[in-house]
Amino acid sequence: MKRVAIIGIQGVPANYGGFETLVENIIGERSSDNIEYTIFCSSKDMPEKLQTYKGATLKYIPLRANGAQSVLYDFIAMLRSICGYDTILILGVSGCLFLPILRLLSRARIIVNIDGLEHRRNKWTAHIRKYLLLSEVVAVKTAHTIIADNKGIADYVKERYKKDATLITYGGDHVMQPVPQSVQEEILKGYGLEKGGYSMSVCRIEPENNCHIVLDAFANSGKHLVFIGNWKRSEYSNRLKEMYKGCDNITMLDSIYDLNILYALRANAEYYIHGHSAGGTNPSLVEAMFFGRPILAYNCVYNCETTHHKAYYWSNSEELQQLTKQQGFSGESTKEIACKHYTWEMITKEYEELY
Predict the structure, then answer these.
(1) What sign for the dihedral angle of Cα 205, 213, 269, 330?
(2) Of 56, 38, 58, residue with least CA distance to 48
């Protein structure tokens, strides 16, 4: 039996972000019988403190997994995983400054998925960015294996650290649970939408996701945009919501986790708009690719690599607005890529090979 500890997420069942969705989908029925998972979770963030989930043991830490407490949260999880595990999978680098201690005291194989390049995100202050860069340096130099979720990230690790990273992306086929057409129609009706009569975007409302560019492109376009995100989280999100709340063609919805609603909105959109400019393979982009809708993505190496250069790309609001006015775009190529490269069965096997 291979005993694997997972550190760095809020917890499961998943209701937060990409890493939580990753863990949700590599445990349980897809997992090999000889893998025994322990997942460290936040007792502050998880209202229902399950002891087991999908066959995995859950252990709780009385701190929040994100924000100022995340570093100590990860460190405590590392201390609690020193003994009893064959592999320790760390998701993200925020607590990796303490990795040398773990490496010294534990015999486990240490694997770190460094996520995107957190130290380049505009949402962090200069001091936090310096800390995250230092944590990344320590992670890459200390871990037995580094996972990059995008070729752009793998190339960065190779160029900066002269070290090979293992490329494992994200799955997205969990969003493809069929929803009856009648249910889809009811969902669209509830939001006042018609099939093919709107574009949609799903993301955290942060500057590096270029939400301001997307909103500006649609404000005077005459095209309808449904934009789903955490609009009440920051000064940036609050300011954008206030600026564009008077635009009748822009519908700003708070975060949605109901897969039936997301299925209906994605499956019936004219275009999927993706504005992420930082990080690696973004889960919301991978998920959208399975629906075969034309994807209009911000032109950066991560999005181009994820879509294998088969989407349609923009760099500013004028270019995005022009793309929304064109006809004949297809999303079939990106759907084929998703079905071939981004299934959870494949991702699970790749993780287990590393253990």
Answers:
(1) negative
(2) 58
Res. 90: pLDDT tops 70: yes
For residues 179-217, one letter each, b for 16 or more C-beta atoms within 10 angstroms of the residue's C-beta and e for the rest, the string is beeeebeebbeeeebeeeebbbbbbbbbbbbbbbbbbbb
Please measure the distance between the N-terminal and C-terminal CA atoms of the chain and give it in whole angstroms.
11
- State which amino acid sits at residue 315: S
Calpha distance 27→14 (Å, rounded): 12
φ/ψ (deg, to 5) at 62: -80, 50
Model's pTM, two decimal places?
0.90
What DSSP string runs through 27-58?
SGGGS-TTEEEEEEEETTT-SS--SEETTEEE
Tokens 């982009």, residue located: 285
For residue range 333-344, list pLDDT tens digits in order.
999 999 999 999
Give the span between the Cα atoms of 324 and 320, in whole angstroms.
6
DSSP string, 266-277: HHT-SEEEE---
Percent of the residues in the chain that have a pLDDT greater than 70, as a whole number: 97
Tokens (6 digits) for 10: 């809020």
More confident residue, 35 or 278: 35
Helix (H, G, I), strand (E, B) or coil at 265: helix
Identify the bridge partners of residue 39 per DSSP, sorted by sequence position: 6, 58
Q: pLDDT tens digits, residue range 313-335?
A: 999 999 999 999 998 899 999 99
